[in-house]
Amino acid sequence: MSLADTRPAAPAALPKLAPGRLLWPLAALVTVALVMAPAGVLPAWAVKVPAAWQLGLAPQISAFMKWLMESATFGLFTVREFTRAIAWTLDLPLSAAKAVLSTGVIVGQGADAVKLAPPIPWFAMVALGVAAGYAVSGLRLAALMGLGLLYLAVFGQWAGAMVTLASVLVSSLLGAFGGLLLGLACVRWRAVERAVAPLLDLAQTMPVFAYLLPMLILFGFGPVSAMVATIIYAMPPMVRVTILAIRAVPEDVRSLGVMTGCTRRQTTWKMLVPTALPALMVGVNQVIMLSLNVVIIASMIGAGGLGFDVLTALRRNDIGAGLEAGLAITVLAILLDRFAQGLARGAEGGAAGRSRRRLALYAALAAVALLWLLAALWPSIALYPESWRLSTAPWWNDLVRWINLTFYSQLEAVKVFFLLNILVPVKRFMLALPWPWVVAIVTLAGFRLGGVRLAAVTGAMTLFIALSGLWPAAMVTVYLCGVGVMLAMLIGVPIGLLAAANPTARKITDVAVDTLQTLPSFVYLIPFVMLFKVGDFTALIAIVLYAVTPAIRYTAHGVSQIHPALIEAGTMNGCTRLQSLIRIRLPLAAPEILLGLNQTLMLALSMLVITALVGTRDLGQEVYSALAQANVGKGLVAGLCVAFIGMIADRMLSAASGRLRQRLGLG
């Protein structure tokens, strides 16, 4: 690349993206609305949606679900019988996994129950985890697996962790396999992909709370309903990864299959899938982490395990026990995440090393079988001794009590500052906006960014939210999510810039981001509920911490991808480090930063629904209250509103990122 090629007006072209043409009409609409609303000039219907205009979908959906479960029939059997048969079928692998890991093999019920075999003894499970980690990725993962499993046993979380592990393993296997099949169907038939794409968007943005109530009605109270909801929530990433991975397989591989006489099925399963396996394992990793991320929520309808332990502790206001169970979920998440990453990378050390590790795994399996037999003869050795257990719950409770007594004034001052200067003004601003103006603003923004089609889609979604009867709750959702995303970007972008410029900072940041990404969303709430009680401020902190990771990752990636010749050209033209950052690095990294903003927003919406448990009054609270009232219509409508907010933001930010890339000549 010549120096002349490094001096295009690419960075300078960024201001020519015509933000003024987009912002001035929007600012004018907002200003007119805010001036007219307090003066009472606006008609009443523009301030509050009239009841006669509202869609009234919630009662209709509830009535339909009642008819479906009480009257609908396929002729030979009813819908209820059909769904209960599915539940019974899905319960078979789940019960088998729980029998092996947690409860043991039990025949009969109640007083007539007989335990034929105990679960895998705790020490055998530790040995198996160490051997599996060694077989997958060597000594480092083996040590991590051993220490993590020992932590669960020593701190009394073994029983709950094994129930959770059984649920996650079965849900992940079914979700990954189902996502693989659906992704392959999308690759083979474009019509299937076009039909599935909006459903995937909806599934990824619909809060998992909204799934629980329909699953509860269809499949009954219990772990199967929770498992089905988990599979629906966790499957979309696997579908998308499968589509990308299979299409990325080199054409030479497909040609080889044709030349060797393979049928289409043989080409798919013997050539395409094995070639794409490393990329597919990334999707499996996502399925595992999403499955584990909803264990606490799923425990509300009978999933049990560590999620139930956390909820029980919070209901008792036992912060120490809740933190112990939450840390156990975190440890389990880290173990599963690192194990899945090891599978994705494949074994290291050559054929000889892989052979030795496989032999070690086989030896461990034989040892586990022997230890299991010994536990069947002496059942008492299968359980971790009570006298060996440790607990940090009293220490955590004492620490929280000390912090609240010592720093109460300072904590309250921080909380009040944010409430009075940021949260309350923004909330009032959003609630003051007339809904027709918001619909017009979103539609105009969609038109400016993506043309008529995007304008129609975003405008229709916004209008649905307005006519759903949940407009105030939706505006509270937008306010909390907006403030959280803004703070996350203000924190994440500078950290990402530092990570891109400094290798040491990059390593530290990667470790921190990996840790934050493996923490289940509910875990973020526990410490801040202890310090700040319930309310919008607690929710805001949890949202920022949970959503900041994409802002860091995408910023660091975007800046590091800038061609060094462009930076050098700026330096040769006399740019200072600050000018290089403002005029070159940030503009050229802007498309990636926008994608990071998109992902940050998605995570913020996901966390916002969880924060309904700490007293927010947004759409998440509507979904949560619907679950408590068994009002499936209300829950689904509120969930759709959350999903539409996410889809509107996703489409607009994706369109903006695409336009930026086109303007900057980045493809």
UniProtKB/TrEMBL annotation:
Indicate the segments annotated as coiled coil, or none if absent. Answer: none
Q: How does it sit in the membrane?
A: Multi-pass membrane protein
Enumerate the UniProt keywords alphabetically.
Cell membrane, Membrane, Transmembrane, Transmembrane helix, Transport
Q: Where does it mainly reside?
A: membrane
Q: Where in the cell is it found?
A: Cell membrane
Membrane spanning residue stretches: 22-45, 57-79, 86-107, 119-136, 141-159, 165-187, 208-234, 287-308, 359-382, 402-422, 429-447, 453-471, 478-501, 521-548, 593-615, 635-653
SUPFAM superfamilies registered for this protein in UniProt: MetI-like
- Sorted alphabetically, which PROSITE patterns does this protein's record hold? ABC_TM1
Which InterPro entries does this chain map to? MetI-like, MetI-like_sf
Q: Where is the ABC transmembrane type-1 domain?
A: 161-340, 474-653
Q: Which Pfam families did the record assign?
A: BPD_transp_1
Regarding protein family, the annotation reads: Belongs to the binding-protein-dependent transport system permease family.
- The protein, known as: ABC transporter permease
